[in-house]
Amino acid sequence: MLTISQVSEKTGLTPYTIRYYEKIGVLHEPQRKNGGARVYQESEVSYIQCLNNLKKLGLSLEEITEFTREGCVMDKIQQGENLSKYTPTLKNRIEILEKHLMELEAKRQEIDYNISLAEEKLALYQELTKEDKVNTR
Residue ranges of the HTH merR-type domain (predicted)? Predict the structure, then answer.
């Protein structure tokens, strides 16, 4: 069993973020010690790391909530649950990821354009600086 501070260290999420995820329902409330302190199992830490990875992908909290509605489907399938039971969930996750991937591709194109523009300006300014040195001699 791990404390919220230990989970925070392992996942890179702050204790505040972990508690917030519980509050909005993205994360189930963990077990508690007699004094009320949260304690987490390794499986819960893995799930929190999954949430963090989705966050790093840039998914919104609404998308993460929708994405994780059925919990860790891959674990359930690996434990022998019927795949067809999760087909709608998997299709929904595919839609979320495809939409997000399209948004990332659009951002990449914009970044590539901005890099190209900056390189052109840099080359122009470097060339102008060389010409100025020649003219001042």
Answer: 1-70
